[in-house]
Amino acid sequence: MTPPIHRLAVIGLGLIGGSFALALRQAGYVRHILGFDTDPDQARQAIDLGVIDQASSDIATAVAAADLIFVAVPVGATRQVFSGMEECLLPTALVMDGGSTKGSVIADFQVACPDRLHQFVPAHPIAGKETSGVAAADADLYANRTVILTPTGQQTASALQRARAAWQACGARVEQMAAEQHDCILATTSHLPHLLAFNLMQVLNEQHDQTELGMCIGGGLRDFSRIAGSDPVMWRDIMLANQAALRISLRAYIDHLEQLAEELDAGDGVAIHQRFMRAQGLHRQLILSDSQAAASG
User: Fold this and answer.
1) C-alpha dihedral over 90, 91, 93, 99, to 10 degrees?
2) d(CA 125, CA 275)
3) Confidence of residue 245 (pLDDT cuts 50, 70, 90)
4) Backbone angles phi, psi at 27, to 5 degrees
5) Cα distances (angstroms) measured from residue 78 to each of 3, 110, 228
6) How far apart are CA 16 and CA 141, in angstroms?
7) Residue among 117, 14, 134 nearest 71 (CA)
8) 8 A C-beta contact, residue 119 and residue 155
9) Which helix (H) or strand (E) holds 42?
10) What is the DSSP string of 189-247?
11) How far is the C-alpha of 148 from the C-alpha of 293, rounded, in Å?
């Protein structure tokens, strides 16, 4: 059977882009994969690991004959990437991204490629690791994970269908929502937790000796701080791109911390217990819902 994608171009050969390439290759969904990365070492490693078949020296060359272009760079770099491909895209090419913010990426595409909006389908795979780089790429990263498409309303029906099919070939569950709704929800479910984890590391560094900390690390700190090992450049760009929604979530979190501090000062064990019970109930509900979705997927 002929693979649906003749040539895939992956711009940004890190965890997200590399895993997308490997997943489609594993599914037999693509014949030839080109890649571009600003770091030549990443590109060479991608070839050595079998993530891509060929590395391109520039974005224009990578996308020139591609059926599908997947942009997997920090969201602060998307406008420059889009600008580099605008004149080279095939009329039938599909362009997708994997950024964690959608409003900013859509705005970047509108500025860089205003005549190509019918070919663009923004996407966000809700999957990842705290490790980065092409060496961390995993063909099963998207299996039974959710990918959210945030259509602009200007893309063709064919482009949206092809985007959905590509992610399903990766084993993902595909959902759809408005970009503004996506950014508001992700500010709380993803961007705020990363901000808190990074900040906790700073607090620990300022308040405690590292040798003493090393003797007292338990499961709680490991679990909470795991995502502080994520790529600082990527997360800096995400937080700046989604700063309005993130600021609202952060303010709500600070308000709850201040309430908790008052309860601690007052020795109000009943209020603290009720607070923790509500949190435990929601956590169990969310984990159950995610498990049920994975099972049905």
Assistant:
1) 100
2) 32
3) very high
4) -80, -5
5) 28, 11, 23
6) 8
7) 14
8) yes
9) helix 40-48
10) IIIHHHHHHHHHHHHHHHHS-HHHHHHS--HHHHHHHGGGGS-HHHHHHHHHHTHHHHH
11) 14
Strand intervals (E) in the chain = 5-11, 30-36, 54-55, 68-71, 94-97, 120-121, 123-125, 146-149, 173-176
| Contact criterion met (CB below 8 Å) for 213 and 204 | yes
Residue 215 has pLDDT above 80, yes or no: no
Tokens of 187: 């500010």
Radius of gyration of the chain (CA): 21
Q: How buried is residue 84: exposed, middle or buried, by Cβ count under 10 Å (0-12/13-18/19+)?
A: middle
d(CA 8, CA 39): 19
C-alpha separations of 146 from 4, 9, 141 in Å: 22, 22, 11
Angstrom distance (rounded) from CA 140 to CA 287: 20
For the chain, the maximum distance between any two Cα atoms, rounded to a whole number of angstroms, is 70
In this predicted structure, what is the pLDDT of residue 216?
75
Tokens of 44: 């060479």
Is residue 120 within 8 Å of 113, Cβ to Cβ? yes
The yes-or-no verdict on residue 208 having pLDDT over 90 is no
Residue type, 296: S
Name the DSSP letter for residue 134: G
Give the Å distances, CA to CA, from 258 to 66, 192, 292.
53, 17, 35
Question: What integer pLDDT is reported at residue 241 of this predicted model?
Answer: 96
Dihedral angle computed from the Cα positions of residues 171, 21, 147 and 27, in that order, rounded to the nearest 10 degrees? -20
By CB atoms closer than 10 A (0-12, 13-18, 19+), residue 296 is exposed
User: Which pTM does this prediction carry?
Assistant: 0.89
Summarised one tens digit per residue, pLDDT across range 133-144 is: 899 999 999 999
